[in-house]
Amino acid sequence: MDTGAKLKAAIIEWQERDLPTLSPRRTSIQLELPHINDIIGVRRCGKTYFMFQQIEELMKNGVPKSRILYLNIDDDRLQPLNGDELDRLIDTFRELYPSGETERLYLFLDEIQNFPGWERWIKGIYDRKRNLRIVISGSNASLLSEEVANRLTGRHLTTRMYPFSFREYVEHHQIPLDLKTLPFSERKIEIRRLFQQYLTRGGFPEVVVYPTVDETLLLQSYFDDIIFRDIVTRHGVRNPALFKELAIFCISNVAKPHTYNSLRKLFSGFQAISTDAIINYLSYLEDAFLLFSVRHYDDSLKKQVNKPRKLYCIDPGMMNAVSFRFSEDIGRLLENLVFLQLYRGGREIYYWQDDKGLEVDFVLKLGLKSFELIQVSFDISDPSTREREIQGLLSAMDHFGISHGLILTSDLFDEEIVSGKRIRYLPLWFWLLTEEKTGGMTLPDI
Within 10 A of 407 (CB to CB), how many other CB atoms are there? Predict the structure, then answer.
């Protein structure tokens, strides 16, 4: 089938179909600005439905569907790509649905990274100032590559998408929230129940929307698609089995410090592998938004680079589905949740450890000399556990010159002064709701 016929089939099908039922996300884009909007995130996190959410808003505001085009580059009807699909797209659309040059068109291109040379076409359209608003999406960080950034400098705005946050998960279940009264309300029983579900199943949209789905099988299939379709095929990984084992090991050991060399030694019995290969493999996993790394904080960049890093995973459900179960170490599962919430909020995140081994889980750098400190501990009822968490926090407070810190637990609201320092305790489920509302740690008094 020639390009024109393929495009017409896809365009007409889009115009005739109804939008699916949507669960609104808390992310937003700025379609009123002339910039190209690029939406990036892990495979199946909801980028397509987020595009549909923007389209629904446009139609509610009076934009006719005949001026809106959604096209998935992965659409089977477009395969194999001839290479001229984008060049002919707008003229073909206007041939089917005529509009004047002064009438604005809205173009939504899904999985754009699969079209060779897409960034040159996008730049050309933008520079010719055609009356368009363009939204693109991609499932890997190729949209953030140096080449793309150079071509689109000053022309694009990036929106990062993630699986459902806990707050979005609660809102999907239509639970009314009043954060001022929630700590004292019976409604917190329902919130805690949802939190346990979220901790096990995670926030990938299909898991959230279809509660009877076997999340383990579904998330394992996502994992395999990310490993083999988004990484192995794209980067030409020579040993897919080793690469997959490395990914599973990293997910099974989130929140544990590692070095590239320690990982190389660990897998040296599997097959001879270089440190450079480990570095590349981890960068592929981060490019696909499956894993994220956190550095140890140090004023010296050289020392910071040489210290072990911690890895975190995109979703708690994914962790449970592809790794060894975390039932015996729920603390790391909770720590991963805290990282995800901080990361989606755009925070600058580190961990820190003193010379005696006392550690604080998260150091948030707010400015040149401004920091926040967070510890995560599922259960601090044991005196030795509480002492360890407090001493780590106090050591970090002294080092960073601050007088307050936060410990997130399973279900404790409390506050105390220790050695002249203010330590606050909050349940993680409550903090997740509050953090997303405020984008920071301005918390209500309990």
Answer: 24
User: Which pair of structure tokens corresponds to residue 309?
Assistant: 């890093």
- Which element (helix H / strand E) includes 399? helix 383-400
Q: What is the pLDDT of residues 242-301, one digit of tens each?
A: 999 999 999 999 999 999 999 999 988 767 789 999 999 999 999 999 999 999 999 877
- Classify residue 187: in a domain, yes or no: no
**Looking at the 3D structure of the chain, how many domains does it have?**
1
Count the alpha carbons within 13 Å of 423 in the hemisphere toward its beta carbon: 25
* Structural domain boundaries enclosing 111: 3-161
Cβ of 410: how many Cβ atoms within 10 Å? 17
Residue with tokens 């040159």: 120
H or E element, residue 203: none
Is the model's pTM score more than 0.90? Answer: yes
Q: What is the CATH number of the domain that holds 7?
A: 3.40.50.300
Residue count (the chain):
446
Alpha-helical runs (H) found in 77-178:
85-96, 118-127, 146-151, 166-172
Spatial distance between the Cα atoms of 391 and 376, rounded to a whole number of angstroms: 13
317 domain-assigned: no
Position 409 in a domain? no
Rounded to whole angstroms, how far apart are CA atoms 361 and 197? 24
pLDDT at 144: 59
